[in-house]
Write a structure and sequence with these properties.
Keywords: Oxidoreductase. It comes from Pristionchus mayeri. Pfam families: adh_short (PF00106). One of its GO terms (molecular function) is oxidoreductase activity. The chain is built from 7 helices and 7 strands. Strand 2 (about 25-35), helix 2 and strand 3 (about 50-55) form a beta-alpha-beta unit. Helix 1 (about 10-20) crosses helix 7 (about 210-225) and helix 3 runs parallel beside helix 4. It has helices at about 10-20, 40-45, 60-75, 105-125, 125-135, 165-185, 210-225, and strands spanning about 1-5, 25-35, 50-55, 85-90, 140-145, 190-195, 235. The longest helix is centred in the middle third of the chain and has 21 residues, at about 105-125. It is of the alpha/beta class. Helices cover about 40% and strands about 15% of the residues.
């Protein structure tokens, strides 16, 4: 059985991941993180399952990351087994057209959430990942990337250039995945980038290719079978490898 902590669970893919993980009997604990629990009614409505716990965490605010870690540890939400899988799902998309006037604040927020926030969460939760390594031999980090981060498949199915700032931040996230996978290899923490696909969410739009349910189901299948062989690589939600 695997325990899971997911950030960005108030809507979209994050919310669906919580639902689908709870449908999997091989999941022992699901910790759902969101910026503001008071505004997360859909998430809180899932609270009947004793395996599910909620924490407030804003990846742009270091104090909330530390508070979430302290709460999980103090309340022993993971028991003695530690954290098997950390899913850095929290993300944001500010448009940036390559021909438009530069929006420095939009670019900064893309990077702050998608890159800096991800490494801050991962570093802070490393002790819980190491606890799982001590008990089970390995633990895993999934960084939610995008097909639009691929320099080979440049902008993927959307084929537009107004998302440059988002693509830049997710490409940087992929570099973080590679660096962490090498840096933590000897500690048996695997780190992988996964694209959820072009999904019918608020961010992806109604014209996207796949449903949030299909994306979440694929992501969970992958999360439950991950091994250290997947570390440092870049996958689509259906398990096919993507070229960087």
């Amino acid at each position: 059985k695997r325990s899971v902590f997911i950030t960005g669970c108030n809507r979209g893919i994050g919310l669906r991941l919580v639902k689908e993980f709870l449908n999997n009997h091989n999941v022992s604990v699901v910790i759902a993180g969101t910026r503001n629990l008071a505004n997360a009614g859909d998430l809180l409505s899932l609270g009947d399952d004793p395996r599910l716990h909620f924490v407030e965490i804003d990846v742009q605010k270091e104090e909330t990351i530390k508070t979430a870690f302290t709460k999980i540890k103090a309340e022993n939400l993971l028991g003695e087994s530690g954290l098997d899988v950390l899913i850095n799902n929290a993300g944001i998309c500010f448009p940036l057209n390559v021909d438009a006037p530069i929006d420095r604040e939009g670019v900064r927020v893309n990077w702050d959430v998608n890159c800096t926030g991800t490494i801050a969460v991962t570093q802070n939760f490393k002790p819980l990942l190491l606890k799982a390594v001590a008990r089970k031999g390995s633990a895993y980090v999934i960084n939610m990337s995008s097909i639009m981060a691929s320099m080979t498949d440049t902008f993927g199915p959307m084929g537009e250039r107004h998302m440059t700032g988002y693509s830049m931040s997710k490409a940087a996230l992929n570099m973080l995945t590679r660096c962490l996978s090498m840096g933590w290899k000897d500690e048996h923490i695997g780190v992988t980038s996964i694209s959820p696909g072009w999904v019918q969410t608020e961010m992806g739009g109604e014209g996207a290719e796949i449903s949030v349910e299909e994306s979440a189901e694929g992501l969970i299948r992958f999360a439950m079978i991950m091994t250290e062989e997947h570390s440092g690589k870049y996958y689509n939600y259906d398990g096919t490898e993507i070229e960087w």
